[in-house]
Amino acid sequence: MAQAFxxxxxxxxxxxxxxDRIRQLPGVVTAENVVGPYDVxxxxxxxxxxxxxPVVKDIQHVTGITRTLTCEVAASS
Length: 77
Known about the structure:
Elements (H helix, E strand, L loop, with lengths): L1 E9 L4 H9 L4 E6 L6 E7 L6 H8 L4 E8 L5
Antiparallel strand pairs: 1-3, 1-4, 2-3
């Protein structure tokens, strides 16, 4: 299973609405409003063969998102 954190910048004043919308997307485990250079941080899991790309693409298509940064979780040993 592939996992990642997606750091999200939003239009001003839209973080709460966007976090709520992202939580509803398949593959999203959680999405939280945060304070700092990013407005929302989402944790995603991908079980299928397509990996994380479809989940990230769905997030990037949410209206009001201006930028994302995806940080894949390194495999632990």
